């Protein structure tokens, strides 16, 4: 009986990591084709899986089978080396809404919610996980206009995130002299 209960809990656990933070909604009229490509992490709420990482980027590409390939890459300042991880993304609902889920480990998915987006040129995005513990400010370029960054910080505070805890990600010259090799 206990073994069955533990198995059930392990199966249900990943379901709790997807979805949209309570009281918020994602962008609509979303275009995956326009979102594909490389995004640079400008700021984030710190999390365990990016600890000691700078120069973080994510690249989204469409595979021949129609699925989305995700490559997250960053420089581990503690180990002085580049690391990358490949995963996959899929929509969590209709494909014209910015609610996706990503997986970097087997069948386990996490929420990837586009809460705000430059709708004209897809130059920046404000992305959260399934709750208010994960937040990223992303840009198509490694730098962001300070006024825009401040505007996105304010928006994240309006959405109920701890915007004062947003940490700037060092995107300068390959994170303090790191070479681009792996």
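^ Assign residues to that structure.
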């Amino acid at each position: 009986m206990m073994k069955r209960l533990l198995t059930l809990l392990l199966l249900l656990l990943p379901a709790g990591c997807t979805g949209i933070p309570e009281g918020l909604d994602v962008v609509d009229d979303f275009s995956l084709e326009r979102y594909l490509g490389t995004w640079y992490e400008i700021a984030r709420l710190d999390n365990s899986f990016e600890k000691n990482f700078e120069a973080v980027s994510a690249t989204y590409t469409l595979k021949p089978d129609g699925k989305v390939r995700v490559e997250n890459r960053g420089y581990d300042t503690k180990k002085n080396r580049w690391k990358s991880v490949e995963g996959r993304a899929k929509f969590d609902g209709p494909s014209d809404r910015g609610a996706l889920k990503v997986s970097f480990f087997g069948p386990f998915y996490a929420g990837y919610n586009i809460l705000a987006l430059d709708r004209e040129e897809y130059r920046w995005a404000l992305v959260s996980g399934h709750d208010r513990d994960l937040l990223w400010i992303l840009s198509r370029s490694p730098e962001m206009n300070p006024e825009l960054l401040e505007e996105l910080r304010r928006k994240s505070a309006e959405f109920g995130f701890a915007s004062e805890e947003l940490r700037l990600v060092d995107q300068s010259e390959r994170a303090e002299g790191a070479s681009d090799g792996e």
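Residues 146-158 form the longest helix (13 residues).
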